[in-house]
């Protein structure tokens, strides 16, 4: 059902004046205007507004947002999934750095002994395996903005998701010497598929493609294989079997 401008403003927690401005600059044009001049927004308009506000939260200018979302090649789902992956990778690294700080405090107190390598865990800022793909997709400027902020999730939620991902990686690492098509391996890779679909929307074929990237892109391989040598290759093969079995 079409919504009036005031209703949309209240729904999205923005001002009516903002919606009028978006219309005036051609960023968000309502699908219908009544004979009395009332703007009516369709479901498609609301979806577009969500995208606009998403990019605006990342500090994109309105001009940049318009250029991105009006590009014929723009895929809203792809944009959301890519940004989520970048943020999750960043969050995982931050969690690791926090853990390093906690261990370092104990090290300074003399309660534990850290190796030189352990003292610098989490400090490699060059290893977000999703950044290059995003840079190629939307350009450096877009990714620079995407790296500036984390979404407003609670610390508890962030920690829970990070812990879940790490536990799955560890479990799969323990299975990496088994056959990728074995029931145990497929049960483990099913957990990974389910986890990824909490963050985005992956078809079995997209899941297969992601697995191939784990091997083709050394940044993926390096990050994944920290849980066990050969894990990236094992996951690629297991994800391919999963895709074949779930066509």
From TrEMBL:
<dbReference type="Pfam" id="PF07739">
    <property type="entry name" value="TipAS"/>
</dbReference>
<keyword id="KW-0804">Transcription</keyword>
<dbReference type="InterPro" id="IPR000551">
    <property type="entry name" value="MerR-type_HTH_dom"/>
</dbReference>
<dbReference type="GO" id="GO:0003677">
    <property type="term" value="F:DNA binding"/>
</dbReference>
<keyword id="KW-0010">Activator</keyword>
<protein>
    <submittedName>
        <fullName>DNA-binding transcriptional MerR regulator</fullName>
    </submittedName>
</protein>
<dbReference type="InterPro" id="IPR047057">
    <property type="entry name" value="MerR_fam"/>
</dbReference>
<dbReference type="InterPro" id="IPR009061">
    <property type="entry name" value="DNA-bd_dom_put_sf"/>
</dbReference>
<dbReference type="Pfam" id="PF13411">
    <property type="entry name" value="MerR_1"/>
</dbReference>
<keyword id="KW-0238">DNA-binding</keyword>
<keyword id="KW-0805">Transcription regulation</keyword>
<dbReference type="InterPro" id="IPR012925">
    <property type="entry name" value="TipAS_dom"/>
</dbReference>
<dbReference type="InterPro" id="IPR036244">
    <property type="entry name" value="TipA-like_antibiotic-bd"/>
</dbReference>
<feature type="domain" description="HTH merR-type">
    <location>
        <begin position="2"/>
        <end position="71"/>
    </location>
</feature>
């Amino acid at each position: 059902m079409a919504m009036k401008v005031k209703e949309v403003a209240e729904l999205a927690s923005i001002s009516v004046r903002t919606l009028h401005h978006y219309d005036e600059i051609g960023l968000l044009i309502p699908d219908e205007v009544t004979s009395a001049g009332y703007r009516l927004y369709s479901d498609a308009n609301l979806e577009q507004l969500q995208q606009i506000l998403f990019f605006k939260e990342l500090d994109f200018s309105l001009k940049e947002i318009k250029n991105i979302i009006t590009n014929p090649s723009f895929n809203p789902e792809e944009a959301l999934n890519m940004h989520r992956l970048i943020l999750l990778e960043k969050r995982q690294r931050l969690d690791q750095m926090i853990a390093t700080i906690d261990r370092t405090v104990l090290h300074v107190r003399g309660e534990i002994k850290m190796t030189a390598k352990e003292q610098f865990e989490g400090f490699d800022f060059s290893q977000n395996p999703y950044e290059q793909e995003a840079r190629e997709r939307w350009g450096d400027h877009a990714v620079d903005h995407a790296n500036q902020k984390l979404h407003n999730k609670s610390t508890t939620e962030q920690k829970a998701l990070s812990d879940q991902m790490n536990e799955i990686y560890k479990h799969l690492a323990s299975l990496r010497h088994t056959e990728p098509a074995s029931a145990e391996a497929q049960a483990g890779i099913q957990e990974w598929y389910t986890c990824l679909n909490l963050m985005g929307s992956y078809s079995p074929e997209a899941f297969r493609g992601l697995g191939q990237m784990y091997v083709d892109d050394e940044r993926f391989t390096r990050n994944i294989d920290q849980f066990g040598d050969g894990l990236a290759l094992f996951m690629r093969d297991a994800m391919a079997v999963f895709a074949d079995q779930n066509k």
